[in-house]
Amino acid sequence: MPVPALQPDRINILMYHQVGDFGRSPAVRAHPSTYCDRHRFARQMAWLASHGYTVLDMDAVLACLRGERAIPPRAVALTFDDGYRNFYEHAWPVLQRHGFPATVYLIADMLGQPARWFAADGRDTPPLMARAELLELRRAGILFGSHTAGHVKLAQHSDAVIHDELSRSRQVLEDLFGERIDHFCYPYGSHDLRVVEAVAEAGYLTATTCNRAPAGRDDDPLVLPRKAIAHGDNLLGFLWRLHMKNTPRKTPLHRADVAAPAPGVGRGLALAAGVDNNQ
């Protein structure tokens, strides 16, 4: 199969949640973007490895967006929301096989606990990774970011709750890993200008959304788009999302005080808010 070109000077940030054996349960059908079959995941990673893609973590994405390093021609970043134990069991061995980095966003108050927000939808509550597993992965090079303390829709909460969720989650993770936590992910994609400004004040350097598009230097680094990979995506579906799903579903938000992009580029507007049902 010939390899189609990616948009130049852009990075496709891919969004995964769980990786494992899930079948076709009602929960999977209702929330396909929160599940990925482990065999399909392995084929997706093998394709990236054999067709010349450069896989980045969010530290490398930030360096590219700042202009500190060139954006590779086929740049892909792998991100995993929530920190499920099945990342450790099924995704990590595949990443190791190919030498791929990844970024995992953690819910600071639920480390080693069940993903209890699933219960609201009547779903089983899968376990999240515990501290020992997280430290092992960090020593092996996996990068971690914050996904709040309690997996809440930030745009629906008060300034005080937003501040607590952002600052407390960062502090818990910095205490665990003994290093700065620079990267954030909005649970459910829930953000507006007030939330994004709070993320900036909390000291995060990047934040990812659920808005579908490749990321570039014209994007606000605290409102970076991602492409969700869903349970039903075979290899052709994966490539379709990777190469063809480039139109944002919502007008991307952009803070007015972010440095202006180069002439002739820029998709951001200062007024739009983004909320998505992805978890």
Q: Using DSSP, what is the number of strands? A: 10
CATH homologous superfamily designation: Glycoside hydrolase/deacetylase
CATH names the topology as TIM Barrel
Average pLDDT = 89
Helix percentage: 25-40%
Q: Helix- and strand-based class?
A: alpha/beta
Order of helices and strands: EEHEHEHEHEHEHEHEEH
CATH classification class: Alpha Beta
DSSP strand content? 5-15%
The largest β sheet comes out as: 6 strands, parallel
Number of domains: 1
Shape field: globular
Q: Based on the structure given, which CATH architecture is correct?
A: Alpha-Beta Barrel
As an assembly, this protein is single chain
How far is it from the N-terminal to the C-terminal residue, by CA? 33 Å
Low-confidence stretches: 259-277
Query: What is the CA-based Rg, rounded?
Result: 17 Å
How many helices in DSSP terms?
A: 8
How does this structure look, described?
By secondary structure, the chain is an alpha/beta fold. The protein has one domain (about 10-245): Alpha-Beta Barrel (TIM Barrel). Helices cover about 30% and strands about 15% of the residues. The chain has helices spanning about 25-30, 40-50, 60-65, 85-100, 130-140, 160-175, 195-200, 235-245; strands at about 10-15, 20, 35, 55, 75-80, 105, 145, 185, 205-210, 225-230. Strands 1, 4, 5, 6, 7 and 10 form a six-stranded parallel β-sheet that branches. Strands 2-3 form a two-stranded parallel ribbon. It has a two-stranded parallel ribbon with strand order 8-9. Strand 6, helix 5 (about 130-140) and strand 7 (about 145) form a beta-alpha-beta unit. Helix 2 runs parallel beside helix 4 and helix 6 packs parallel to helix 7 (about 195-200). The longest helix has 19 residues, at about 160-175. It is globular and about 50 Å long. The protein starts with 10 loop residues before the first strand and ends in a 35-residue tail after the last helix. This is Polysaccharide deacetylase. It comes from Azoarcus sp. (strain BH72). One of its GO terms (biological process) is carbohydrate metabolic process. GO terms for molecular function: N-acetylglucosamine deacetylase activity. It is an enzyme of class 3 (hydrolase).
